[in-house]
Amino acid sequence: MADILRVLALYGAARKMSIVYKANLNFNRIGKYLHLLVETGHVEIVTSRSGSDSYKITGKGQDFLSAYDRLVESLTPEEQSQILETRSEDVVVSVS
Fold it and tell me: For the chain, which domains are there?
């Protein structure tokens, strides 16, 4: 999910398909990740006049991304590679 936040931080508001390509994610999974990020306040939906939805990172999302980057930088190269390996796995997080 940090990859989604990073895309939104770099490019501003983006549509779902754009996020899929820029973050190199599976289109079938992006919906649940975006839903979770919206529900937790890390991302907001912006609807254009034409009715199409884009997604934009919030301040809370920016704060999370900064904290995530600091955490990754504090890890050894071996620990960082383990994080990269788990990015490709389907990790499901529930929000109560």
Answer: 2-87 (1.10.10.10)
List the one residue out of 10, 32, 42 whose CA is nearest residue 23. 10
Tokens of 87: 């990015």
CA angle 43/77/5 to nearest 5° reads: 10
Q: What share of the chain in percent tops pLDDT 90?
A: 61
In sequence order, the 6+-apart residues with CB closer than 8 A to the CB of 89 are none
What is the torsional sign of CA 84, 66, 71, 77?
Answer: positive
Average pLDDT of the residues of the chain: 87
What is the pTM assigned to this prediction? 0.79
With contact defined as beta carbons under 8 Å apart, do 87 and 74 qualify?
no
Residue found under tokens 């190199």:
24
Distance CA 17, CA 88 (A): 18
